[in-house]
Amino acid sequence: MVEKVYVTYNQIHKLCQASAERILNDFQPKLMIAIGGGGYVPARILRFVRAALPRLVLHPVCLTELANRSFLKRPGSPNIPIQAIGLSLYEKLTSSGPEETPGTHVTRTQWLDLSSLHMSNLIGKNILIVDEVDDTRTTLEYAVRELQKDIANAQKQLGREAEKTRLCIFVLHNKDKEKKGRLPDEMVKENGDYLAARTVGDVWICYPWEATDIEEHDRLAGESTIA
Question: The pTM is what?
Fold first, then answer.
């Protein structure tokens, strides 16, 4: 049976805080793209420190509220906007329990319109893709590949093919296992455009936004060995 580990909102907040300096200094993002649903909360924490996370309500289409404080904000600089994409990979294969097994087919449930005026202004910028976990890497591979295609098409349509748009990745947890998906070599090389706050074993990570009883979830998290 797969080992379950539980992670709290406080632990996630600290993982984001510990990762923010490298994201800000090395990636210098002008936009965050949160992969729904697990990427919404870490992206929101990175952008808006003062949010009361257990009561946080995130709009699934576009998270663009103004914030006064942010881990990824330098004094005098604008807040980094968040857009959302919806990708589904996990599928339930049993009816007798809550076991989840990674699927093999990525379903796009929500995407960006890179041909719009707002998105065209992001060509040539640094974009940070945020998700909660890098498990099989299938979802991240899909997101990077499809975003690269859309950006290239938008650049061609606008005659801006010489401009380089940089995609970077941040995840809370990377599972140390053989990956089914692949990311560009220059992205995952040492000190490349990929950052995992923690690398863990091949365990089932239970995140707090999945909990039905948050008090019991936090109790179980006190017995877990990862953060």
Answer: 0.83
